[in-house]
Amino acid sequence: MTLSRQSLIDAMEKWNQAWDAHDLKGVISLFHEDVVFENWTGGQARGRDALEKAWKPWFENHGGFRFVSEDLFVDETEQKILYRWTLLWPSSEKGYEGRPESRRGVDVIHFRDGKIIEKLTYCKTRIEIDGKRVSLTP
Q1: Domain range holding 59?
Q2: Which residues contact 41 (CB under 8 A, 6 or more apart)?
Q3: pLDDT exceeds 70 at position 90
Q4: Can you give the CATH number for the domain in which 102 is found?
Q5: How many structural domains compose the chain?
Q6: Mean of per-residue pLDDT scores for the chain
């Protein structure tokens, strides 16, 4: 199944709604059974069940996180999306735990059979915590 440009955009709208509602089942329903997900730290989950298991603690203890859409690039022919976002959440960075954090990033999302088959996340190494720029250190 190949999605039209509008269907890809609609899928991302459902994606945002599920994330905003902290609805793990809603988010997971958009993924292909054989999904490969790589987060901004390089951690990886293969398969929808593994991804759900990896994300479950984050959704259960979400702290009110939300993603703000910045831009969306859609390639209907290749069934790919480039999604630019800002994550607003309580920081988990050492020494800043719980303080308001703003983190910007990009997801490269590939669809197959109408579902997300690959999601690669890239994030800036400078973030804002309490309105101040902070460089992440290893």
Answers
A1: 5-135
A2: none
A3: yes
A4: 3.10.450.50
A5: 1
A6: 93
